[in-house]
Amino acid sequence: MDRAVYIGGFGNGKKSAEGVAEALASYYDDVDPFTFSQAMDRQNVVRRAVRGVDVFTHSAGMLAVVGASPSRIEAFGAPLPTSKLRLIGRTIVKTARMHVPRIGIHSMRDLLAVNKYNLSTLAELVAHPKGNLGRLGQISRFSAVEAAIAAQQNDIPSSLTYNDGDEYFTLTAKDEAMATAAGVNITRIPGIHDELVIRPKATLQHAAIEQRL
After folding, report:
1. Per-residue pLDDT tens for 73-131?
2. Residue 154, C-beta contacts closer than 8 angstroms, at least 6 positions apart
3. HEC states along 89-138?
4. What is the chain's percent helix, strand, coil content, to nearest 5?
């Protein structure tokens, strides 16, 4: 049976993780979802769960698979080095843009998805403040490019997908060239940072996931 693991990003709650896992079920027989705080607090469990299976991550979720041995890594909007202050500031921008018509909201279905996202995030931050906010320093120092190259060198096919309108992270031409030279697949698609969580099925299609599996 084909299995996969999904690890959500900073502040993304259980319902958000389950929504992406449901979309991934179009490609796999079974998908195990983890929130970011769950994955970071239970790294031994996660490493066992991802061993020999494909793992999908959103944003900071990639931190939880460093040193693990999945069969493949598909990382969406994974962190690039920045500052804690900028992360906080860009969170305000990201949250605002998510609610703007034709940027974060394109249909009534999106409006419902954004509201669901908000509720899930609020519940997650209330339940696990330290598990999320306490790791801002780790997130700000993390380099998805370095992590993907290291995985690739350990014979783990790795892909980094970034949205053109990502409010947090912008992959430079230099970093893209370095990653590509190491065999890392780079994909750029339209949308905002939380595109995968708000519109999971469409985002997976835009990223051409099926062609890489």
Report:
1. 999 999 999 999 999 999 999 999 999 999 999 999 999 999 999 999 999 999 999 99
2. 69
3. HHHHHHHHHHCCECCCECCHHHHHHHHHHHHHHHHHHHHCHHHHHCCHHH
4. 55, 20, 30
Listed in sequence order, the residues at least 6 apart from 142 whose beta carbon sits closer than 8 Å to its beta carbon are: 60, 62, 63, 78, 79, 80, 81
Q: What's the rounded Cα separation, in Å, for the pair 17 and 39?
A: 12
The pair of structure tokens assigned to 17 is 């993780």
- Give mean pLDDT in consecutive 10-residue pieces for the chain, a chain of 213 residues: 93 95 96 97 94 97 96 98 95 95 93 94 95 95 98 97 96 96 97 97 95 86
Rounded to whole angstroms, the Cα distance separating 61 from 39 reads 8
CATH architecture of 3-212: 3-Layer(aba) Sandwich (3.40)
Token code pair at residue 126: 């209330």
Write down the pTM of the prediction: 0.96
- Given a contact cutoff of 8 angstroms between Cβ atoms, the answer to whether 66 and 44 are in contact is no
Query: Amino acid identity of 212?
Result: R
Q: Which DSSP string corresponds to 54-78?
A: EEEEEGGGGGGGTT---SEEEEES-
